[in-house]
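Reading is simple: each integer encodes one residue's backbone shape. The lines below illustrate:
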Amino acid sequence: MKKNNSSPITDYPTLNGIPVSIRNDYLFKKIFGSEDSKSAVAHLIHLTTGIRKEDVSDLTISDPHLTSRNVRDKRGIVDIHIKLKDGKRVNIEMQNHWHPFYPERVIYYWSHMYQETSRAGEGYNRLSKCIGIHLLNEVFRLSDKLQSTYKIREEDGSILSDVLELHFFDLTRLPEETKELLQSEISELERWLLFIRTDSQEVRNVLSEGDELMSECNDKVKSVYYTPSEREIYIREHIAEMDHYSIMQEKYESGKKEGREEGKEEGREEGREEGREEKTIEMAKAMLQDGMDKELIQKYTGMDWEQLENL
């Protein structure tokens, strides 16, 4: 779908200058990870993975109790873990910032989820398929598509096993939010992804018109505006995420600076070494011109026979 740069949307107020978005850790878990979120998370899984609605109708959300303490784990990300009735596991993650080893981290966490499906005394055939749904609010640098799906395949495209399935959604690839766009025909998946991405309450209102499930989710978002306790949690989580991101950026920039300094020092050392080698060669040439024996030249310069023969 092409971006439309027409009329912008008039927006609602922010919270102390902080925009309200479902991408916030607290709101994301409130909408998709709480006990009364099963319909919403089931629909999101259906839209993003293509799993049939009837196969996600009876699911279990791990740790569905929403508190300010369990919104964010120690890794600085928010995950929602779901078990489907057929045993499949699904992990939904909202990731606002890209970092260099993000794909490796995703695979690492997937491996833990897969390992957790095993039980003592059971064979490998009892291991369950594990699916990752990863929503990114920065450019997914391995693809220029809105949705990228990865599985374990042979070079000819044949599937080795379907136990691994990773879906990445680059929210930056969605069109710009304009009145014209919201009045046009867009897919249901795009509507939900826009609903998650946007900072605009007005956009959420328009997107949810005529959609009962999205309207219920939108009502949960609106409560942040006028419920003091929720507003406090939302702002605290926003600040915590910004602090975490700032720390990560500082470490990254510090690492780059150290790398540059090490590179400069290595360059200086290489230059000094090259200078010493050139001086040794010039000295050996002078010794040869004076008729000195090659064995003595080798002894005093440390050069090998091949080097001396090539002078």
User: Anything to note?
Assistant: Residues 25-226 form one domain.
